[in-house]
Amino acid sequence: MGELLGNDVLKICGKLKEISGTELKAAQEKLDIPRRSSSPLQLRIAEKVVEKGIENLDQEEKKEWGKLENNFGIEKVWAQEMILVNQESPLVEIEVTAISLGDVAIVGLPGEVFVEYGLRIKEEAKFKQVLVTQLCNGCAGYIPTKEAFSQPTGYEQRLARSSKLIPEAGNIITRTALDLLAF
């Protein structure tokens, strides 16, 4: 395996091009992004699901829970996640990083961002090549697009410790990354 990888690296080295400009620049910014929270009704239902199971909900509760559950079949897990995330701080500190060398830039984002954000950064940044990396400087969980929150299914936008930022978070993070790349 190592030999195969080494051979591929040697092939690529022959195709390398010199980077114009040699000034290394770096910037970072910490942000406090608000966390989403559940309504009192949703929390009460989640506690009931954890304690007694979904079969013990009344019709109103089942209807409300149906909006949240997305038919994943693991109601108690999602209910427990909802309870736990609502016990966390109302603000989530994240850090966005940008590094450039000549016409190449690297952006570090603190979560699993939807591809639309990375594509927007690449399109709007004033660099020949932009590498957008995820899970840098911590993990803020899934960062879906605002539009994804209006979709009826999807675990990435389901309120949990793995997806807790407000729907606008991705746009805030993307704008911050682009501002940092302005150096």
Describe the structure.
With 183 residues, the protein is α/β, with parallel strands linked by helices. It has two domains: 19-36 and 90-181, no CATH class; 40-85, no CATH class. The chain contains six helices and six strands. The protein has a four-stranded mixed β-sheet, with helices on one face. Strands 4-6 form a two-stranded parallel sheet. α2 crosses α4 and α5 runs parallel beside α6 (169-181). The mean pLDDT is 91.
What structural keywords apply?
two-stranded parallel ribbon, elongated, alpha/beta, four-stranded mixed sheet, single chain, 183 residues
Q: For the report, how would you describe the main beta sheet?
A: 4 strands, mixed
Give, in order, the helices and strands: HEHHHEEEHEEH
Q: Can you tell me the overall shape?
A: elongated
Number of E strands: 6
Give the count of helical stretches. Answer: 6
Q: State the share of residues found in helices, binned by percent.
A: 25-40%
Unreliable residue runs = none
Secondary-structure class: alpha/beta
On the 0 to 100 scale, the average pLDDT is: 91
Strand order of the largest sheet: 1-2-3-5
What is the first-to-last residue Cα distance?
40 Å
Beta-strand percentage?
15-25%
Provide the domain count. Answer: 2
